[in-house]
Amino acid sequence: MQKREQSKQGGAFGGSAIPAPKRGRPFGSGSNSALAAAAAATSGDSIAPSTLLGPSLQVHSAFAEQNNKRIVLALQSGLKSELTWALNALTLLSFKEKDEIRKDATPLAKIPGLLDALLQVIDDWRDINLPRVLMKKPRVRLLGTNSTVTGFGNEYETLSSGDSIPQPKSGSANKDASARKIATKPFPSGWWFEEDGIFNLDEEGRAEKQQCAVAASNIIRNFSFMPENEVAMGQNRHCLETMFQCLEDYVIEDEELVTNALETIMNLGHLLDLRIFSSSKPSYIKITEKRAIQAIMGMLGSAVRTWHCAAAELLGRLILNPDNEPFLLPVAPQIYKRLVDIMSFPAGDAQAAAVGALYNLAEINMDCRLKLASERWAVDRLMKVIKTPHPVPEVCRKAALILENLVSEPQNKPLLLAYENAFAEMLFTETRYSDTFARILYELTSRPSNKVASARGIWGM
Q: 333 and 378 in contact (C-beta within 8 Å)?
């Protein structure tokens, strides 16, 4: 996490010039030393390539089992050196190559107190992230009360129309009563939190706290990619509350921290039950189900492509759990509108995320299919995904199945009859989805449900 002098690292590792290759280190790890040397030459840095990314750690897979208590205590201590050591060790332990199989690895999220200690690092940063705005409280104007010539004392009794607090009038009795009233006025609850703490941080200290929070969020994100950690993290209310709070403040929060939080929740989406926010488990931030959904909707409406793509995929995973339906269905019209907009983006991953979410939503109930069919441009953009076609055939198949689900509702037939010729064209041009469009045309024309459909069937309109 931080650079150290070459002499310190050489002493720590017996003076070895080039360390063995490390997992997760893009350059400066032995195998990529040429790239590191080129980067150092470009930047004019005379430090050896092996020291570009901070201290090297030789971490064995059994390291967590032997030092689990030490890692947790180092995170809880808050000391810079201990915190850096623990975060570096956990970053290497939690990183896993795509094709790597580590059967002897310890499920890190199941180490007692480790996940909460990492979350506390993020919470500590969020506590100091926003500067507190001190608001001045109204007070009695006592300027010149002991003077009779300034015009502001007891002889000046005229008040402006905007004054909400009366001025003290002449007479010692009134003055004492006013002073007594001010002295006995109770302070609002929590007034001591309105001042800065004793241990204030300068800009460098705040930057280090932010780096630690981002590193902790990256470790938690790595945890969520391991199947053995999913259940423990999906049932940890503190973890979900912290992640959703990061999503809520995406406008002012560190972008990398928000991205890590969103990917963590997305990885846990298939196990996530929003009722955990109203359960009896201890709460740290008091996130409710409604706030969690609003946080996801904020990410869905963001301009960052990775964010709204991940949010769309997350909604598609959340709706698979029937217990989440009561919280998602009230905002379903907003979800449909935004997902249809995302389908118009030229990026293939955005279209895939939107089609995948709409596919799961269309499978829910009749009301979802009716609202989706009545959404403007929904059918046109689903057809465009198939016609283009999308590079991934599975996305095109899901788009065709969405159309089949829509036409299965009799109330949608008047809306979809306008696309009969387009469906027939797809039947003969797209051989991979001909069966699906054949079923669509059969449902659309075989059982007419209104007078318009009957006229079309009889007169060939």
A: no
